[in-house]
Each structure stands twice: as structure tokens, then as C-alpha cells.
Amino acid sequence: MDWAGWAVFGLVATAALTAAMITAQLAGLTRLDLPLVLGTFVSGDPDRARVVGFFLHLCTGQGFALGYAATFALLHRANWWIGALLGIVHVGIALTVILPLLPGVHPRMASQRAGPASTAVLEPPGLFAVNYGIQTPLVTAVVHLVYGVCLGLLLQAR
Fold it and tell me: Could you read off the pLDDT of 24-49 as tens digits, one per residue?
């Protein structure tokens, strides 16, 4: 397995995913703020949470990049379309399993059943994260495709 490629290119792909997600958020295409969601696990202060969440997102991206790199190593090849397929699987799991389960473990996220007495600061994402905007599933799919394609191309070059 290409450990140096994983270490460097995992950060590059995660930075590309994060930049694309922030751009989509600033363009009004989604309200999903992954650094805020992750950071509020640790801090209730939104500004501090975004900083902490950014670094948590980089670490999480490295973890997923390790999975992608291991898959490429098992297949004895890395290319853009395998990376894209892995990105589709990744986003499918994220939107249908991880995000909908998050309210059950997140200390500052409301559940779908939260009433008016809730003190949660984050709304639940819902299935496919549509509570953060109707375009969120498409945006999330595109940025995860970018992530997978980046890893496939960059690790192929090594």
C-alpha cells in the first residue's frame, strides 16, 4: 500500500471535498456545515466548533482515504472511475445511515421527535440530509465523487 500517497493525497482530497462543500454552502445550495456538525460534538460555541470541526473533518477524511487506499491496493489499481464508485458507496452510506443516526449520539442535535422544549442547537439532518436543503443530497453526492476521483487519480499517479 502507498502510505505516503495516502497521507498526502488523503489531505488533498479532503481539502477538495471541504472546499467544494463550503462553496456550495456559500452559494446557498445547502445548509449542511460538516465542520459545525462535527465540532459541536466538542464545543457549544459555534465559532470554536467550526475550527475544531474542520480538524475533525480532516482526520475523518484521512480515515476514509485509508479505506480508499486499501481498496485500491487490494484491487492492485487506482483510477478515477474506481474512486468515483467508492465515492458513490461512501455518500450512500453517509446519507442513508450515518447522518440519520447522528441525532441519537450527538449531544447538541435535535431528534426528529424533539418538541418545543428542546435546547438542541442543530436540527436533525433527516434521511438524505434533506432537512438541510432539498439540494443537499445532490451537493453531497457531487463532493464525494470529487473526493473519490481525486484519490483515484492521485494514487494512480504514484
Answer: 999 999 999 999 999 999 998 999 99
* Residue 52 in grid coordinates: 475544531
Q: What type of residue sits at position 32? A: L
For the chain, where are the alpha helices, taking DSSP H only?
3-26, 34-39, 46-75, 80-93, 99-101, 136-157
Residue-wise pLDDT tens digits, 3-21: 888 889 999 999 999 989 9
SS3 call for 117:
coil
Q: What is the pTM (predicted TM-score) of this model?
A: 0.87
Report yes or no: 17 and 146 within 8 Å, Cβ to Cβ: yes
Cell readout for 6 is 495516502
**Are 74 and 66 a contacting pair, CB within 8 Å?**
no
The C-alpha atoms of residue 87 and residue 127 are separated, in whole angstroms, by 18
Dmax over Cα atoms in the chain, in whole Å?
A: 55
**Which residues, including other chains, have CB under 8 Å from residue 92's CB and lie 6 or more apart?**
none
Q: What are phi and psi of 109, to 5 degrees?
A: -115, 130
CA–CA gap between residue 17 and residue 9 (Å, rounded) = 12
- Are 153 and 87 contacting, i.e. CB atoms less than 8 angstroms apart? no
The answer for residues whose C-beta is within 8 angstroms of residue 43's C-beta and 6 or more apart is 49, 52
Helical (H) or strand (E) element with 84: helix 80-93
